[in-house]
Amino acid sequence: MAEATVPEAFAADTQSQQLSSTQRTEALSAAAAGAYDGTDGSDTENAAAFLKERFEVELEFVQCLANPWYVNIIAQQGYFDKPEFINYLKYLMYWRRPEYARFVVYPHALAFLDLLQNKSFRDEIKKIDEATRLTVLQQNHWRWPNYREEGDAAEDEHAEAPLSR
């Protein structure tokens, strides 16, 4: 089985992942600007390019979380057993803020990002049966937006049931 790719940024300094969004932006800008010491005015352009690339990489990774099979594969490869990766998932929670969430094309990615904050979910998603169950629920949600799994506590008495075939 091919190894799933995850951003190398998750191994970054834990302290930088604990910063507020303003502090994070300032730290990233300073780090990007500090990474370039040209005096021809290209510092700002290089820093902007660095921040743009980081934004795109993190957005792409967050959107991959919408796929239960991708989450299952990275769980089986032991990423959820690494404290650095758990810190990275906590750091990525800033994508839930409206100014960032507007860029997320797959809203289920944010739901899975929330679920991945719980150890019990991280342990369960390692199982093929759980990934299969989540895939079916996700597909049923796309087909029938008001679909609820039988026995769901949030079942709405006015929700439309899927048609039997």
Structure report:
The two termini are 36 Å apart. The protein is mostly helical. The chain is globular. The protein has helices spanning 14-17, 21-34, 42-64, 68-76, 83-91, 98-101, 108-115, 119-124, 128-143.
SSE inventory with pairings:
Elements: H1 14-17, H2 21-34, H3 42-64, H4 68-76, H5 83-91, H6 98-101, H7 108-115, H8 119-124, H9 128-143
Keywords, separated by commas or semicolons:
disordered C terminus; globular; 9 helices
List low-confidence stretches: 11-18, 35-39, 154-159, 161-165
The ordered H/E elements are HHHHHHHHH
| Beta content | under 5%
Q: Could you give the distance between the termini?
A: 36 Å
Structural class: mainly alpha
Find the count of extended strands (DSSP E, 2+ residues).
0
Overall helicity: 55-70%
Q: Using the alpha-carbon principal axes, give the shape.
A: globular
> What composes the largest sheet?
none
